[in-house]
Amino acid sequence: MSLRRALHFVFKVGDRGKTATFYRDVLGMKILRHEEFEEGCKATCNGPYDGKWSKTMVGFGPEDSHFVAELTYNYGVGEYRLGNDFLGITLQSSKAVSNAKRLGWPLKEVGEALYLAEAPGGYHFYLLDKEQPQSVADPVQKVTLAVSDLQRSVHYWSSLLGMSVMEKDETKKTVLMGFGESQCKLELRDIGEAVDHATAFGRVAFSCPREQLPDIEAVMKKENQKIPTPLVSLDTPGKATVEVVILADPDGHEICFVGDEAFRQLSMMDPNGNDLLDKAMADDKSDEWFAKHKKQKAVA
Fold first, then answer.
1. Mean per-residue pLDDT over the chain, rounded
2. 5-13/124-128 β-pairing
3. With contact defined as beta carbons under 8 Å apart, do 200 and 81 qualify?
């Protein structure tokens, strides 16, 4: 499964301004591309919402070689309820730690040279205060997700999806998995209770050769696993059309597999991405409208 690679994690955000500050100014990520959509995604990339929304890809470098964040913003929704499903992203960047301290962004020391920073919306980021080795291109090390039955989950991700088990920690009840040593890893942690996705639930995305997509779907059908969105084509105005299949693991974590060839075209860095995001935020008068009418944005 060496041809499969980890791409990004999808976050729902209610405040694009504060969120942009966190990713750009605190973490030090770049806006890789920004896209606006008039109606909901056929693969529910923006969640179960039909209206206007936007997608902003942010990361430390190009999507070809870095694990990035996909920030989805639904116009009119100001807040999402957090569950216990997403446990954090860990990245190694002394620069991010110094940025947070300089800007007064709250940090909590949770280990040796390890700090917890909270993104707007309550999402956890663990910042390792060490210089990034030059031999490693991407500071993002792992995504940690909660599971209710570790053995069952490891079987799903390894036997059905082809991930390799890289580390096990019985004390912490964690297993580290991945499609390659140089990629961002997936860490599964047994929390000993049911996983609650609430309304802020995200999605982890991987790519594979396009020809593997029908096979992945077929395996899941054969094993009676959940397929929230069967193989479908997704259009982005002015960009490449990609094919995806959306799966759900035994705890309901959504997993996107996208055809790699078209995705590499779609995900090319847009030098205007930063300006497009800033313009979209400036043009979005929803906060002013809600304030003027003494109303609050919806809480999903």
1. 93
2. unpaired
3. yes
